[in-house]
Amino acid sequence: MLDIVLFAVPASLVILGALIVIFAKNPVHNSMGLVLTLASLAVIYITLNATFVAMVQILVYAGAVMTLFLFVIMMIGVDKPEQTREEIKGQTLLVSGTLFILIGIISYVVINSGFKWDLWFPPVDYSLEGTPNIIAGTLFTEWVLPFEVISLLLIVATAAALALAYDTKPGKKK
Amino acid sequence: MSIDLIIGLTKAFLILGLLLTNTILLIWLERKLVAGMQSRVGPDRAGPFGILQTVADAVKLLLKEQILPLKADRAMYLLAPILALVPSFLIFMIIPLGPSFDIEIQGENVTVDLVGANINVGVLFFLALSSIAVYSVVLAGWSSGSKYPLLGGVRASAQMISYEAAMGLALVPVILYSGSMSMTDIVQSQSGFLSSPIPLLDSIVGFIPKWNIFPQFVAFAIFFVASVAEVNRAPFDLVEAEQELVGGFHTEYSGFRFAMFFLAEYINMFNMCAITATFFLGGWLGPTFSGFLPPIISAFMPAVWLGIKTFSLLFIYVWIRATLPRLRYDQLMELGWKRLIPISLIWLILSSIVLGVREFGLPWS
Fold first, then answer.
1. Which helix (H) or strand (E) holds B357?
2. B118-136 in b/e burial notation, b at 16+ Cβ within 10 A?
3. B119 touches chain A (CB under 8 A)
4. Model pTM?
């Protein structure tokens, strides 16, 4: 019983947050909806005994990324209701049609693959203590190459963003 | 009801009561100390030494009208004070107040940890909640629908993000030294005295307790500066600079909602000092005098030691506030990004090298 409550409450908050992201008109409300989604996901991680992942989820996504989102929204002052006029003719129909086809293909594959899912999570192994140790162990032995490649990718992305923002060609005015 | 639930609820109510009464004391103490440093008298009308002044102020704030500005964003305006208060109460949950002890309840032996929740990633919990606290300031500033609070909110988000990075980086060497992210283990790792492989040095440093502040003094300095900035205290109080921004993010708030911001600010300050004491000053460790004192008093000595360390740090906070002028905004950013973060990275590399040599020996031997 307690398991179901502990899953159902954060799960419905995740969906509520996602709906706010889609339907709220004000960008600040949208981003707060996303914060709700991310924080409720962290609660689900805690019920799965993954405290480390939950804390990193709050720290990185709800804490750092979304604060930067809000900061940018406030700095450039786009905190006005979004205009709903279509820029390209029939874009809503086009996008939703493509999306439905995509969902249809995925459902077709899933149904025909014989995949079965349980309604609730598999039982959690509460004997595993010290999740940071386990994560660090696998990350720095088994997955060390992908880990380093990702860090390289992030550095390249940062450098590219800096190069785009600070274009210091002579004779060019900002 | 199970015994665990009863113990948990008791802890929660005790912590709530402790933080609320402590804030009353803290505000009075700060006003008295600043008054003393500026050759004034300070509050002295209500109660002995004016100690009831804060209670009077709180009652006044509760009875005042709550104003909702016309241009305010209603939902966010009401959410912001709650987001300020809840993380500040939750952070205290991870601070260990003493060693765990056994008691007998209804014929059963129960071990009670003197900490709200002993989670194995306590350090990350603290960092995560202090990053959630940024939202209250940002949302309060934005939702008031007024210029000064908005400026305060933008300043606050930039400042708190910058100094959070330095604060987290300063904590990494401490985690490496203690070998754990659990607050209880970090306190335990600081018990005993310093030792040195050189015999002559060993007899000198052998009297110094093994607190993290001694091997990690640079990390302590960075963490302390960053923590003052994180709780928006002078000299980093640009967020609510009265001369420039009227009151900053809480200009439009009145009555009880203003009191919630005020309360959260002082609880955060107390939490930050208690956490600094836990990380660097040995937490509740200290002599319990169990031979001289009756056992009921010596059982409370760990909490008393933590209190003494916390209030010494709080005294330094107030001292700084009464002494230093406010930083300019560019100086604030320069201090954070160009000084604190590079120094903490260099210190992290140095202390990892020392730790590696101590663990595995020199690479060429």
1. helix B341-360
2. bbbbbbbbbbbbbbbbbbb
3. yes
4. 0.83
